[in-house]
Structure formats: structure tokens, C-alpha cells
Amino acid sequence: MGIVVRDTQTGEISFLQKGADVVMARIVQRNDWLEEETANMAREGLRTLVMARKRISGTLYAEFKDAYHAASISHEGRNEAMAGVVDKYLEHDLELLGLTGVEDKLQDDVKGTLELLRNAGIRIWMLTGDKVETARCIAISTKLVARGQYIHEMSKGMFILVWSFWLTILLNGVSFISVRNSDQVRDHLEFLQNKLDCCLVIDGESLQVCIGIFLCSLSRPNPLCNK
Prior knowledge:
The chain has 227 residues and is an alpha+beta fold. The protein is built from nine helices and six strands.
């Protein structure tokens, strides 16, 4: 979320924006501490919010205003056009101002309710927009994950490596294909198969790859997809 403001005393125009670190990291100026600090807060179970600023000249603001107005009255692709104008004029090279960690306490009876659901034989999944580290902390605090229970994390590069191995098998229709780091991938999969009581944490990028593999398996059935 962003806003353009003008200082009534100095006349200076600024664009102020706040957002999740995964989004803001792509549009702020290069820095060395943002990722580290957000990860530290996430490990404490805090939700992070990043704030940044961009000073813009009167000329640039006038160009932005005209372009944004033209995009807002277009008949086709209005939302995309408006977002494109914001991206072109405002959402890049922002000055990082800081970040904050917000504690979102659990509602009453959450732990007890989850226990009743588990006792009823209901399998529970947690879906969240938080960082992986924050999700782990919340899962433990709600006792969705038992104390000492093994937690297996699939995220970004590691998950893509595993599924690229299976995708090669799927598309070629053979039992085994020698691919880069295939031995490590095979060991990794065998390890998971032997873990009967574990918790899986998977991030959005990895889940997207998983869905792609699943859809591919529907179009090209293969016995390996059932394992």
C-alpha cells in the first residue's frame, strides 16, 4: 500500500509505501540487513512490515499524474495499465526506512479446538501468508506440531531440485533417469518415505511447482505419480 504526499511547508513530494518484505525487497534500494532482520523477527513468530520512501520531483509527479489518469479511464486492461504506471514511476529504487515486527496473539481456545479436531480424526492443514519461519512458530505454539516432532521444510531451490527429478521421470516414462544430483534427490525422497510421523512445511513457490507436476501427471498418467 502506498501514498503520495506533499509537505505543505517545503513543497517536497514523497511516495511512501509499506508492505510485506517479500514484495518490498524487490523494489527498495540494495541493502545488506533487510533479509537478515526480517528472518530474525519471523523466527520469533512476528509478522513483519517494511516501510520505504521515494522523493519525487514536481515534474516527475506531473508525468505520473497524467499517465495514471489516462490509465484509469482506459476501457480495456484498466487495472494492468494503472499498475504499470505505478511500477514505472514509483515502485522502484525506494529508500528503505525500516521495518516492524507485529505480534499476532492466538485467539482463546485455539489449542483446545485443534486438539478436539484431531481427536475426531480430522486432518488439519494450516494455510498462511506469513513467512515460513513465522508459520513454523505459530504451528508449534498452537500445538499443531507436537513438541519434538520432526519438521521437514520444502522451499524454493531444494523443492525444485526434488521435483525436477520426478518431472524428468514423468516426461520420459522410465523408472529412473540419471540427472544432476540424482543420488541426493533419491536419498532425500527415501528419507521422507521412512518418516511416518513428520510435519511438512512448504512455501508458495514450491507448492506452485507441485501443482504443475500434478496437472502434468493428469495429462500423462504414470504409475510413479501415485507413489
